[in-house]
Design goal:
The chain has 486 residues and is α+β, with helices and mostly antiparallel strands. It is built from 14 helices and 19 strands.
Amino acid sequence: MAKKLICIVGILAIIIVSIPILYLFKTKWKENAVEVKAPKGYANDASHLNLTKIDTIIQVPNDKGQIELQLREILKYASQKRLKISIAGAQHSMGGHTIYPGGVVLNMLPYKQMKLDPTTNMLTIGAGALWEDAINYLDGYGKSIAVMQSFSSFSIGGSISVNGHGWQKDSPPISSSVISFTLMKADGEIVNCSRQENEELFHLVIGGYGLFGIILEVKLKVVDNVALKYKQVRINPDDYIKYYNKYILGNDKVNLVFGRLRVSDKHFLEEATLNFFEESESDIPTLAEPKGVEIKRLIFRGSVGNEYGKKLRWDLETTASKVIKNLTFSRNELLIERASLIENKDSLSTDLLQEYFIPEQNFNDYIKAIKPILKSSQIDLLNITIRSVKRDSDAYLNYAKQNVFGFVMLFNQKKTKMQEEDMITLTNNLVDVAIKNGGTFYLPYRLHINRDKMRIAYPQAEIFFQLKRKYDPDELFNNKFYQHYK
């Protein structure tokens, strides 16, 4: 009887382990893996829903002298031909922010030279460099990026133009780490912008979506690379603020932190995790290429449109914490993760981000209000990450007017007219709830909100657009975002 029982238990164990593995194989097999590229003469962005005919795409050189000469010629050419110029980096925005119909697109990615001043902890870097370029460079000096988004595959200039926020503890958006930058204006003049020099332009360009000029070189604060240990606390979302205050606010060892809400149908938004990394005295691990990326990607992609996949992912994330807590990570190792970790290889659908910034006092009310909206929507919700964002005093068009919690939502949308209409409805409902709770919505995404509602969340927008015309009266720097909201 004992042998029979052991045999049955063994078979059950094999089945339990095999089901997730088979499910991941099925997820891989279902992907059509058709790479969607914009045809010649067209440009698109990360939404894959903004295919637009343009005049030309111009790749800038990496040499400082050459890029200045080339850009002045382009500005002159565009002005004479009455063409508009949009500025592109990694193109992770989703609302046509790097595109203007019939216009010139500047591809800034080649401009990526960098130099560290170790005495001042200041990095001078070309706007086209990706954050991963900066991390790999800084790692050799024992340094790390002060503030950046959760993925390293965005460009420096692009991140400043949207004023991205990260998961660094007690941090305002990226603007807080910017010391200064050089900017080529519409007339070809290059000016230095900082909190002391050309101050108004400094505030307008940060989070200004490329409307005031071309960011060339950026001076950034950097911090020490450190060894980190992972911890996770499973909680009820109603208690998130209480546990955040307990485990994070008074803990000087915490370096990186984020929260997660459960999105499976069972226990929908009824469970949460608080995830944080504390500084450790352990040796700092050598920076290496991330491992297991494809397995992690398949676990994430397996949650698309599938309750089992969503539950599996949640279970793996919460149980894996018991193993991960014994490992040591370097800060750079955690920051260098790329967007390919969740890449969608289904050409018939697209993943779309939305972000909402809610004051602490309305945190619980906000979650209660969005729950029925998300539950009833036909759009597939894949993920909600929570990040604390400190008040931003730098960007003119700032979204963190006070200390807020950012709710980062990722959806999977089919490329159909019906799903696009569903997304418009969902977005407007979510924006209404954010505004009602004293919050704002992030502007780098789909242009589904009208200009009047945008001005409720951003009452400074009208003056922002007036200043745009002050610095660029011919509206040479242009994009779909500006056309929609101006």
